[in-house]
Amino acid sequence: MFKLERVIIGDHIVFRVSGRIEFEHVATIERAIAGENGPTALDLSEVTLVDRDVVRCLARLKNAGVALENCPAYVRQAIRRSRRRR
Fold first, then answer.
1. pTM for this structure?
2. Strand 67-69 with 40-50, pairing
3. Hey, where are the domains in the chain?
4. Residues 30-55 as b or e (16 or more Cβ within 10 Å = b)
5. CA-CA distance, 66 to 14, in Å (whole number)?
6. Residue 36's pLDDT is what?
7. How far is 23 from 28, CA to CA, in rounded Å?
8. pLDDT in tens, 29-50
9. Which H or E element spans position 63?
10. Which residues are paired to 69 by β-bridges?
């Protein structure tokens, strides 16, 4: 089950993501982040699974300055692999 929760921590907006993130959730995540001004982060500590499209989305967001907090090792590795393929 996918869940996205918006939390304000100091002057940062953090979106806590939990569950499985699939292609159908990418637009929801991107819309939520696009609607914010200032420092934004995704807390991925409760993510259980991501698909290939989500990895591409996370890589784009990271390149755009969105912090990926508590990112599982397998997701970090997938992002690195996707960057090398380009």
1. 0.89
2. parallel
3. 3-85
4. eebbeeeeeebbbbbeebeebbeebb
5. 10
6. 92
7. 10
8. 999 999 998 899 999 999 999 9
9. helix 52-63
10. 43
Side chain identity at 58, as an amino acid letter? L
Fold type of domain 3-85? Transcription Regulator spoIIAA (3.30.750)
Which tokens sit at 47?
A: 């993510």
pLDDT digits (tens, 9 = 90+) for 47-72: 999 999 999 999 999 999 999 999 99
Q: Tell me the C-alpha distance between 80 and 27, whole Å.
A: 22
Sorting pLDDT into bands at 50, 70 and 90, what band is 86?
A: low
Q: Which of 32, 81, 30, 24 is nearest to 50 (CA)?
A: 24
Q: Tokens standing for 36?
A: 């914010």
